[in-house]
Design goal:
Layout: H1 4-24, H2 32-66, E1 74-75, E2 79-81, E3 88-90, H3 100-128, H4 134-165, H5 173-210, H6 213-251, H7 259-267, H8 271-280, H9 297-337, H10 357-362, H11 365-400, H12 410-421, H13 424-448, E4 450-451, E5 455-456, H14 465-489, H15 494-497, H16 505-510, H17 517-526, H18 531-539, H19 542-549, H20 560-621, H21 627-647, H22 662-668
InterPro entries: GPCR-associated_LMBR1, LMBR1-like_membr_prot
Biased composition (Polar residues): 618-634
Membrane topology: Multi-pass membrane protein
């Protein structure tokens, strides 16, 4: 099993990162380099989280071997028997041979740092650039990142000059490398505590509120009102941008040098706008530079960038609106079925996507009723209590992990108890659950936060390239300090435990933080205590109240604005529900009409065809008779009457489809 666990986790984490990226990104529309860079960043960060428990168990085994006071007298490959104390150092099932982990961590760490500080910022500017060629996009990206890169080079250069001039410092290359790592981890730890303080409270609270059907329904109504406003703004913005594109397309004709740029912009527009602009085009007119003023290439680049942004925003709003409608309809169905006497879940609307037959066989309406109406609320409450317990343990350990005598950190107590018995399965499970919970609290906050329309991770393939790359940057900057914080909580970091023992392979590549004592003994120890203040602020929703005071509507139960938005959202859902019902009723009437008259019309059509054949053969044999033309005309009249009968369908009245424009009504018919 040597190295097998490492290989299995490497493969598993890759598919996990690929699944999440497929949920948020769009493999078909987005650039391949964006997909690959984001996948690599997510994969490396998730890999660090999953592999670190194996590093801990391997380090504990290596410490056991180093603690031998005399040479081993027996070795059969699975354990080593010590002569004086008869102690057995069992080799863990996931043991990784010496020399592999340091190389592995070095490759993973420096690759992630290269991504977050150099490649991903450059690709962000490249993805948002409106240039029409690769050279133009690269030039724009370099210009936008010149200040970004120049600032870091200036700080690093000033530090090197200070070290070279000051005689008290005699730093070598390894120490400079450690200082760089410490600077990156300090920046990441500053952001880590902020996100962790929010996640430790919000995740248990969201699961507890998930058991309240009324709360979820009211919040969905609130989201519907806000999303409708955003949807209207996106449609209005898209209309304005398309109007500018139309004017540019009409002014720049087919033989203009910038016509290729205009065609590139038109390809990024929605299909209906492309068809509308194509009908209004008159490419037979030549352009004249002396009579007309044409937009410059720089203005077209700006317009191209606006088109990409507005189309993405409009498509995202449309998809999110449909998802929110399905969620609201389902929550209303749950509230309606809670009082059902038959104990079978009845849906108002059928699912638009085909359901799996296996799921339909096991997840019957009765099973669905028991799960949604009885079991699911209790399951969410129990899960919320378990998560809240974990949060309390994390907060306590964050405030006491620096104490080694006595050991107050609960995670360190658990690991040390398991270390005495060399129960490696327990050690790995405890380490994995601890770092996994910390990662969930931090990463879920990254997925939840939204900075206007600048950064927003939207599911169902609606996240733009800029937000995907930005999330990769955040993960690469947050994961190393997260792992160091976890090693400090479990006292596996020698800087925290103050024990002269073998460090883990992960901390060995970080170097000794004694070069910067004020960071190792000050900031790394006392700054995480601020998580208590952040948890209190999150519990009382201080951030939400501040945003609400600034004019950003937030869901608050005691706010009059929230009540108004809930009523507005409820009315919007009612209107959309009525539209969906009219649509399904119309489809059902058409289906019943076809089922009722389909066989009769087919038999009538067969009789008509047979009659026509007889009449044609009769007319051919009697061409000299004048009566034949009347027979054919009567047959044609009969066929016309039958065809009119076939085209008849029941009318589905829809008030929304009435238009005052006769042209639109004709096109509709």
């Amino acid at each position: 099993m040597s190295g097998a666990a490492l290989g299995l986790e490497i493969v598993f984490v890759f598919f996990l990162a690929l699944f999440l990226l497929h949920r948020y990104g769009d493999f078909k529309k987005q650039h391949r380099l964006v997909i690959i860079a984001t996948l690599l960043a997510w994969y490396l960060c998730f890999l660090i989280v999953f592999i670190l428990p194996l590093d801990v168990s391997t380090t504990i085994y290596n410490r056991c071997k180093l603690a031998v006071n005399s040479s081993p007298v027996e070795s059969n490959g699975s354990y080593i028997t010590l002569a004086p104390s008869k102690q057995k150092c069992f080799k863990p099932w996931s043991y990784i041979p010496d020399g592999i982990m340091p190389i592995f961590w070095r490759v993973v760490y420096w690759t992630s740092q290269f991504l977050t500080w150099i490649l991903l910022p450059f690709m962000q500017s490249y993805a948002r650039s409106g240039g029409f060629s690769i050279t133009g996009k690269i030039k724009t990206a370099l210009i936008e990142n010149a200040i970004y890169y120049g600032t870091y080079l200036l700080i690093f250069g000033a530090f090197l000059i200070y070290v070279a001039v000051n005689p008290n410092f005699n730093l070598q290359w390894n120490q400079l490398q450690t200082i760089g790592i410490a600077a990156a981890n300090t920046w990441g730890l500053f952001l880590l505590v902020l996100l962790l303080g929010y996640g430790l409270v919000e995740i248990p609270r969201s699961h507890w509120n998930g058991a309240k059907r009324g709360y979820l329904l009211m919040k969905t109504y609130f989201k519907a009102a806000k999303l409708m406003t955003e949807k209207a703004d996106a449609e209005e913005n898209l209309e304005d941008i398309m109007e500018e594109v139309r004017k540019v397309s009409e002014s720049i004709k087919y033989n203009h040098p910038l016509r290729k740029c205009v065609d590139t912009i038109l390809k990024k527009c929605p299909t209906e706008y492309q068809e509308r602009m194509g009908r209004n085009m008159d490419d037979y007119e030549d352009f004249d530079e002396r009579q007309n003023s044409y937009p410059s290439e720089k203005s077209l680049v700006k317009l191209h960038k606006q088109v990409i942004y507005s189309v993405q925003r409009h498509c995202r709003a449309q998809v999110q609106w449909q998802i929110l409608l399905e969620q609201a309809f389902y929550l209303e169905d749950v509230a309606k079925n809670e009082t059902s006497a038959t104990r079978q879940f009845v849906h108002t609307f059928h699912s638009q996507e085909p359901e799996n037959k296996i799921v339909q066989y096991f997840y019957t309406p009765t099973v669905e009723w028991y799960w949604e109406c009885l079991l699911r609320p209790w399951f969410y409450r129990v899960l919320a209590v378990v998560l809240a317990t974990f949060s309390v343990i994390v907060v306590w350990s964050e405030c006491t992990f620096f104490s080694t005598k006595p050991v107050l950190s609960l995670f360190a107590v658990f690991i040390q108890l398991a270390e005495k018995t060399y129960n490696y399965i327990y050690i790995e499970m405890a380490c994995f659950l601890t770092i996994f919970f910390l990662s969930i609290c931090v990463y879920s906050t990254v997925f939840r936060i939204r900075v206007f329309n600048y950064y927003y991770l939207a599911s169902h393939h609606q996240t733009d390239a800029y937000s995907l790359l930005f999330s990769g940057m955040l993960f690469c900057r947050l994961t190393p300090p997260l792992c160091l914080n976890f090693l400090g909580l479990t006292h596996m970091d020698a800087t925290i435990s103050h024990r002269n023992t073998q460090p883990t392979a992960y901390t060995s590549i970080m170097g000794s933080m004694k070069v910067l004592s004020f960071v190792a003994d000050g900031f790394y120890i006392y700054y995480p205590m601020l998580v208590v203040i952040l948890c209190i602020a999150t519990y009382f929703s201080l951030g939400t109240r501040c945003l609400n005071l600034l004019g950003f509507q937030q869901f608050m139960g005691d706010s009059e604005m929230t009540s108004d938005l809930i009523d507005e959202g409820k009315e919007l859902i009612r209107i959309e529900k009525r539209k969906r019902q009219r649509q399904e009723e119309g489809e059902n009437r058409r289906r019943e009409w076809k089922e009722r008259y389909g066989n009769r019309e087919s038999s009538t059509r067969n009789r008509v065809v047979h009659t026509d054949q007889k009449e044609s053969s009769f007319s051919e044999t009697n061409t000299n008779r004048p009566l034949s033309k009347y027979t054919r005309s009567n047959g044609r009249t009969e066929r016309d009457r039958i065809e009119l009968l076939q085209d008849a369908e029941p009318l589905d009245f829809n008030a929304d489809s009435i238009s005052d424009d006769p042209l639109e009504s004709d096109s509709g018919r």
